[in-house]
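Human: I would love a firmer grasp of how sequence relates to backbone shape in proteins. Could you go through the record with me and say what the backbone is doing? Here is the record:
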Amino acid sequence: MRTCVYPYSMTPTLFTPDALRSYRLFESSDLDETRDLISRVMQPHVLVPSGKDRGPAYMDFVRLGRLGLGAISFGTSMRVDVESVDGYYLLMFCLRGHAQVRTLNATLDVDHHNAVLCAPGQPFDAWLSPDCEQFVLRMDADVFRKASHDAGALLSPRLSIDSPALRGWMQQLRALTGSSALLESARSNGQIAGHMEALLIDLLTCSLPSAPVAPVTPVTHAALAPAFVKRAEEFVRAHAGEPLQLEDIARAAGVSPRTLREQFQNARGMSPMQFVRKVRMEQARAALLAAGPRARIADIALACGFLHLGRFSIAYAEAFGESPSETLRKRAAR
């Protein structure tokens, strides 16, 4: 059999991130453990297996600055439901197998030629074939927006990773994830990681197509919001310190989760769960500003619904420009 030799510029799109295999985050046959471990580096989500035979799930993952690169296989057909991508841009395509992804009003076929890009606040509802292995790129929202020439543009969720516009980005991504020496250098050296992060995001953002339709302008005036949106907001404010899921809020509002998610996004420019986090953060700041001399940040965070103190502190600093302890010190100095 003849072996075809392709010129460099004609090399077929074959993405094999062999260097990632040295960063195995976990391997498990337990669904709850799989969901929990993926959530630690991505975000909470729902997993619904639909296959009868299940192999072990695994995830390879490495963090480079404000980028996360990973490969995920569930060992069976799986539905992955993320109510709202939170604080980062998610780009996904398949190393093998295929997927169907619903985000906003689009349903996209994803494979090793076609990718999906979800912005913060957008849903990610995917069905993955039994043999599917995903490649995921997690890009923190602030660095992505700074690199974008038009941060306010509505980006198309559909990407052809074989397109000439993305050829340079794919070659750089392939080089990084295919070289153990390069990937480890970037992982262990913050300066190198910063250069790699900037190069990958610059190559990507300068090549992204805009969506073919204009974005829907959110309706933010309270009087124009549907009554069930207002019921949902009242419920969240009254129960923000409790464990809340989209289903809980939808039940209190009297509509289906899908209806609430879509109409809340249209009316408020954010998802219901983003609103939950916003209310919790506002309540935490109010509690810190009113706290007594013996107040503990951990107690306030827990009372406001934040279960992870480290993540709370980071999110608080991003929201208010100071740490929770700085807010307490300012209160004590008054």
User: Anything to note?
Assistant: Confidence is low (pLDDT under 50) at residues 1-13, 211-223. The first helix runs from residue 31 to 41. The first strand starts at residue 24 and ends at 28. Residues 8-205 form a domain with the Jelly Rolls fold (CATH 2.60.120.10).
